[in-house]
Amino acid sequence: MFNRVNYVCVNMNHASKKEQYRNFNTFRFFDQVYNQNENKTYNHLEQPEQCRQSKGLIALVISVLVLVLLSGAIIPYFLSYILKTPYPLVVIAEDIMEPTIYKNDLVLVKGVVDPSKLRLGDMVLYYTGESSSLAVRKIGSINSDSLAVASDLIETSEQQINFKQVVGQVVVNGNKPIKLPRAGFLSAWLN
C-alpha cells in the first residue's frame, strides 16, 4: 500500500508540473529576469499597439486604392452620360493649340446637340478625315453644313469639316477652357 500512495503522489506531482508549463508566461518571465515593466502584465491575446496602427494604415491605403480604381472606371461613364458625349475627358496630343491648350493637357468636353449653338472661337473636338483620331481646334467660320477650324498657331491654315465629324465642344469658363495642365503625362505613363 505504501508503494501505491507513493505512486499517486508522484503522479500528482507530475500533473502539477504540466499545469505549471501550461500556465507559463514567457513575457512575465522575461520581465522578472530583466526587471523591465514591473507593473505591466501581458495578455497573450492582446496585440501590440504598433500592429493595430499599421493594420489601420494598411486598411486606409487599400481603401484609397479601391476608391481610385472604382472612380477611374465609373467617373468617365458618369461624365459621358451627363455631358452627352462619348469622350468627356480628352488628352491633347498636339501642341498646335498653344498657348490656349498645351500638349498633354486634359480637357473637359461636352456633346454638341444642336450645331446652330456653336459660335466663332468655340473649340470643338472632331474626327479627322484620315482616320478615327480626334483633334481639337477653334471655329474660324460657320457655313450651313460645315465648319472651318484652325489652330491658335499662325502658320496653320483653316480646315473644312462637316457637322457630322464634330464629337463635342470644349467646356470653357469665361474664355478659358476647363483643363488639368499636364495630366496627360499620367495617362501616357499608365498606358
Give the topology.
Layout: H1 2-22, H2 26-34, H3 49-83, E1 89-91, E2 106-111, E3 123-127, E4 134-142, E5 146-150, E6 159-162, E7 166-170, E8 172-173, E9 176-177, E10 179-180, H4 184-190
Antiparallel strand pairs: 1-2, 2-7, 2-10, 3-4, 3-7, 4-5, 5-6, 8-9
Question: What is the CATH fold-level name of the largest domain?
Answer: Umud Fragment, subunit A
Q: What is the strand content? A: 15-25%
Total discrete domains: 3
- Straight-line distance between termini: 89 Å
SS class: alpha+beta
pLDDT averaged over residues: 76
Give me the CATH superfamily of the largest domain. Umud Fragment, subunit A
SSE succession: HHHEEEEEEEEEEH
Low-confidence segments? 1-13
Shape: rod-shaped
CATH C-level class of the largest domain: Mainly Beta
Radius of gyration: 36 Å
Largest sheet descriptor: 8 strands, antiparallel
Helix count from the secondary structure assignment: 4
Number of strands: 10
Helix percentage: 25-40%
Can you tag this structure with a few keywords?
alpha+beta, 23% strand, 191 residues, Umud Fragment, subunit A, 10 strands, eight-stranded antiparallel beta sheet, rod-shaped, disordered N terminus, 3 domains, two-stranded antiparallel ribbon, single chain
Task: Write structural notes for this entry.
The chain is an alpha+beta fold. It folds into 3 domains: 1-46, no CATH class; 48-83; 86-190, Ribbon (Umud Fragment, subunit A). 38% of the residues lie in helices and 23% in strands. The chain has 4 helices and 10 strands, in the order αααββββββββββα. The strands form 2 sheets. Strands 1, 2, 3, 4, 5, 6, 7 and 10 form an 8-stranded antiparallel sheet that branches. Strand 8 (172-173) and strand 9 (176-177) form a beta hairpin. The longest helix is centred in the middle third of the chain and has 35 residues, at 49-83. The model is unreliable at 1-13 (pLDDT under 50).
